[in-house]
């Protein structure tokens, strides 16, 4: 009976972890281009540094692509003492630090492209926590966003 309970707990725990990792964040950002409203939709996986963007211009032109949040990483140079069950242990860890800036490249369905630079309000919260951004189209047109 005890083994059945342990197995049930393990299955529930594993299912919860898989469900959490599969979570996505979706949202809408509105911007302005030449005085008209532009709609940008984003999709980002839980704990991901990147995601998908779709932007629709006032005339219906559609741009799709990817954004990437900057990060820096270090290999094995962070030392923590007593981080395991044996307090005499030393743990060498890799570490990653997210930036509050991101870049995007979007390709349009009418032959134009768009490069975007974003400044997020929070490095940890990323695009979900809001920020500001500017996108420049291949012909020089600009789109400004606040989210």
From TrEMBL:
Keywords: Signal. Residues 1-22 form the signal peptide. This is Lipoprotein. It comes from Pseudoteredinibacter isoporae.
